[in-house]
Amino acid sequence: MFKGILITNGDSGYNAQLRGIDETVLPEGDVSVGVEWSTLNYKDALAITGKSPVVRRFPMVPGIDLAGTVLESTNPAWKNGDRVMLNGWGVGETHCGGLAEMARVKGEWLMPLPKYFSARQAMAVGTAGYTAMLCVLALEKHGIAPDDGDILVTGANGGVGSIAIMLLAKLGYRVVASTGRSAEADHLKALGAVDVIDRSALATPGKPLGKERWAGVIDTVGSHTLTNACATTQYRGAVAACGLAGGMDFPATVAPFILRGITLYGVDSVMAPLELRLEAWDRLGRDLDIAKLDSITREIRLSDAIATAAELLKGKVRGRIVVGINNNA
Ligand code: NDP
User: Fold this and answer.
1) How far is CA 313 from the centre of its chain?
2) Contact predicate 96/33, CB 8 Å
3) How far is the CA of 221 from the centre of ligand 1 (A)?
4) Ligand 1 in contact with 128 (CB < 6 A)?
């Protein structure tokens, strides 16, 4: 038996509970990992609360990220004692995940813990930070340089948004942060934003084309926010869309694409190929300011994760949450 959060969906309804879990619950996999740190991402909060159908198999251990030590392996790539990390691959959705003392996974999903980070720091980055870097890479590969103009980051106080601001600012871009929490404007400026706008300016239906404002956009919100971001992106600019915190719809016209030649990049972290993951994590190691990362990281215990998931969906969490799996303090 080991301790973890287990989600069930039986006669008594959808339920997430911290409890003892029998090893037989764990799916097949060639590597067992002793989990030391995990995180709470937006998707984990959806899974724990059941607010969206993130979990596809029951019973399920949530947690799309994990970091820890290999306990047992029949995969030649890994041996007992290796320090490893995992982001995505359906873990916490279709395969038991990281919010428990133990996980059994496919060896090909694991990555060595990046040399730049402790296990706790790697989870402070987590899927949110790795996705922020995938968005930055998409804009860079499009050819957007700091001199090209402002970069808009939406959902700025969230995990992806906060880390995107930090990364872009460090790389020399001028970042404009869009947030519903204008009281946090000074905090966002301390992370590197040069300007902060209220998210209501982007949240309602706008014109097919607006004034050209952004060289690039990282959008975590979706819906009208993404539509308006595209409509105000400058000629041949690019938008990296990764989130749906404001809605899954995309009520857009083709005008920005066919009249301004803008490009919309879809960013997926879950099934991203290993080569891209390694590139993103290497860049995170070089371009992320660890002191700033620490300043946006809140540590909780596994026993706090269910309550904190509800808080996160209410937009009350700022930055990143790390979960100390064996932390009883
Ligand atoms: P967080 O909950 O940490 O942040 C989301 C932020 O979005 C909030 O802090 C808030 O920022 C803003 N927000 C919340 N509700 C609304 C709303 N109704 N309208 C407009 N803005 C809102 O989540 P993450 O940063 O972890 O994830 C952000 C999004 O990216 C999620 O949709 C998530 O599912 C997605 N994601 C996608 C990945 C992929 O692979 N494509 C990977 C990781 C995340 P503020 O208070 O500043 O307005």
Assistant:
1) 14
2) no
3) 6
4) yes
**Segment 22-67, tens digit of pLDDT:** 999 999 999 999 999 999 999 999 999 999 999 999 999 999 999 9
pTM of the model: 0.97
Report the C-alpha gap between 256 and 228 in whole angstroms. 10
Closest CA to 209 of 229, 223, 224, 225: 229
Ligand 1 centroid vs 317 CA: distance in angstroms? Answer: 11
Q: Is 191 in the pocket of ligand 1 (CB under 6 A)?
A: no
Q: What is the pLDDT of residues 228-255, one digit of tens each?
A: 999 999 999 999 999 999 999 999 999 9
Structure tokens at 4: 């973890």
Q: Is 269 in the pocket of ligand 1 (CB under 6 A)?
A: yes
Q: Which domains does the chain have, with CATH numbers?
A: 2-113+296-324 (3.90.180.10), 127-266 (3.40.50.720)
Taking the CA of residue 225 as reference, the ligand 1 atom at the shortest distance is 20
